[in-house]
Amino acid sequence: MKLIAPASEAELAAVVAAAAAAREPLAIEGNGSKRGLLRPVQAAGTLSTRNLSGITLYRPTELVIAAWAGTPLAEIEAAVAEKGQMIAPEPPDTGALFGTDAPSTIGGIVAANLSGPRRISAGAIRDHVLGIRFVNGAGEVVRSGGRVLKNVTGLDLCKLLTGSHGTLGIITEVTLKVLPRPETAATLAVRVPDLTAGVRVLSAGLGSPFGVTGAALLPEGPTALLRLEDFAPSVSYRADRLTGTLEAFGPVELIQGEASADLWRRVRDAAPLHAAPEEAIWRVSVRPSAGPGVAASLPEARTLLDWGGGLVWVAGPATQAMHERVVAAATAARGTFLLFRAPEPLRATVAVVPEEPPGLAAIAARVKAALDPAGIFNPGRLRAGA
Amino acid sequence: MIALPPPKAETLAHRDEIIAALRAIVPGEGTISEPIRLKPYETDGLSAYRQPPLAVVLPTSTEQVAAVMRYCHAQGIRVVPRGAGTSLSGGALPLADAVVIGLMRMNRILEVDFEDRLAVVEAGVTNLGITRAVEHEGFFYAPDPSSQLACMIGGNVNMNSGGAHCLKYGVTANNLLGLKFVTPEGEVVEVGGGHLDAVGYDWLGLMTGSEGQLGIITEVTVRILRGPEGARAMLAAFKGTEIAGQAVDAIIGSGIIPVALEFMDRPCIHACEAFAHAGYPLDAEAMLIIEVEGSLQEQDDLLARIKEICQRFDPISLKVATSTEESVAIWKGRKGAFGAVGRISPDYLCMDGTIPTGELPHVLKRIGEMSEQYGLKVANVFHAGDGNLHPLIMFDANDPESFRKAETFGADILKLCVEVGGCLTGEHGVGVEKRDLMPVQFAPHELAQQRKIKSAFDPGWLLNPHKVFPLESAAR
User: Fold this and answer.
1) Which residue of B has its CA nearest to A149?
2) pLDDT tens digits for range A95-142
3) How far is CA B266 from CA A366, B273, B378, in A?
4) Can you name the CATH fold of A1-181+355-386?
5) Which chain A residues are within 8 Å of B73, Cβ to Cβ?
6) CATH architecture under which domain A271-349 falls
7) Can you tell me the ipTM of this complex?
């Protein structure tokens, strides 16, 4: 497969314009770290943003950073950490899940809208994208949003492109909101009899006035985890108060420092599910109270619940039958699903994400055509024939 | 008066027939056609622009909205959605040949789920109505536009409304889970729901802030949050706008995100003090209101940190509230700012650009120069944490020349916002007011890209065709 990695946005736009004229489909990627996600793309050539790299603007006191799409996420996280800040949605490191050491790029993180545990309090990646530049299917460079925190000028194409997995446009530069990195973090852990009891613990934490920033259920135990992050006096006060609330559910253990940080890295990266590389992995998103029911209806699977119980990571046999059961469980809970990792034959066969909502299919096709009229971007990546 | 697209003669000619058809869908009081009863619908919060519609329908269900949309689509009739009519950008301004769909009778709260921390409400529920429905359990709906007593959640979604507390809690887009809406062709669509982050195109995000260009929103699923234990404000006054801006930078740079961080300039301080007697320092060039949340001891800790930072910038005065009453007093002037300006000037225009916060001193200096040049007074309030600037331009609406100058002055301010790296509107929306300034911020092909997405939803440009996009470019 031919790989084209232009060194400038203008050059990338020219490649797209030529491909559009020739109606030659392109697979779009950064470093290809998430090539194993979604459906395989049918394209002779791959267009990569990996050579569009570097931070273009960073104003810590304005809470804003901008970088070319091919900039490694790690480079951005290091730059903001140096100023005591963070990319708040804590995107997962999917390297171990996909068995690759290719570094995630910021463009790929935005194109996949991948968010970690802090999503429940700080919002998703899509909530932190302030501006983008992208190349549309006609080879034009289009801007949306900007570099300010509040902006409602025109249709929000930042939201539309974020999470579109390179099927609507090639993101070339992103501007993100950053937030102060909390001075201190601590985790309260409660051993629970089952997942339903676990979600009750998480709901008690999330429904408290103590600003919980992580709420997950580890399979070992199971164990309910609640994270507090802020200035040290606040964390210490809130840990005391929240412990008082949670003791009704069982003994509460306080975990601090590196041990706490390590726990949340494991939740973020779904590390408890890494053990069996031959298994398929799904991400099901439902109302938090419906999470335990989804897990219970898949007894042969191993699960990890995040987002207060609403995000169910599922690991199980990489078969079509298993996929259908995960889809049925997500649908019965009125939620959504994503076949996150699976061998290529399975990914190529099944619907890896739900169909467009009824009533929107025709509009979705016209929106795709409005951005990518020749249909050259990532054909088949989200859905067969789309 | 701003230019509106010429009415379709075909629609006007069939007025009686159209009204009869609408009445068959939304019977009785739900269809309004008498000129005297159309009057309340001719304008919104931007009352300088007025245009009575052809008719108004007030449906009570999504099915009725869908039936009206199917009928209007089949007949090629233009449609303008309306919530409470509080838009400051003319977002609810009708057209002479348009049917206004008013959502105010769809005001039921359909579900409240404290365990999953969400509420499902119809589009005509007021912003504050959501909080009222959940506050007995200590919860609230976070975005708080200053019109929150009247404005409706459907309008909030369409404008992606903000408020004074969005530095910490985000704007409307960050607090939504799902929508039900009717497409221009009359299909009922549900996106999102009780869960987070569906994989695929973010229709929820695209609809939010789309200013009624893409569909009629009838139901909204919002996140509700447990309120903090308490909140308290402090006031800090400085000798200059530049040094006040430096204090803001230092607070944010120290890792503190206050729940609100409001900036007022000298004319605004004076107007508010004369109106509210809040005890604001009249010798200050700039004043900050800073609010923090948490338990009493957390508030004390944060306010002490902020006070220590402000002391580095040679403040004229620092006043930390010691009680809820003192906090209310500090906020009293700021919350009455618009009324205060209304008291010293017969009319004012409220602008709404956003700038990179570091540009504030430069922008205020330029606005001061323009104020002299146009001979019109201006007072500035600024959401300092997020860069959203609200200059209030004072003029006399009885003097057409004064209004014309005020509009030009406002446009110049917004152009300046774009020039320094900001945008035309931070929370009020483009509407009709800023429609013709869109080319200042977007290149022709960028506007064309947005218009193509509008066309994908609304191929006939029947929905709100006179807003957001400049008219000459609007027709496909």
Assistant:
1) B386
2) 999 999 999 999 999 999 999 999 999 999 999 999 999 999 999 999
3) 51, 10, 10
4) 3.30.465
5) none
6) 2-Layer Sandwich (3.30)
7) 0.97
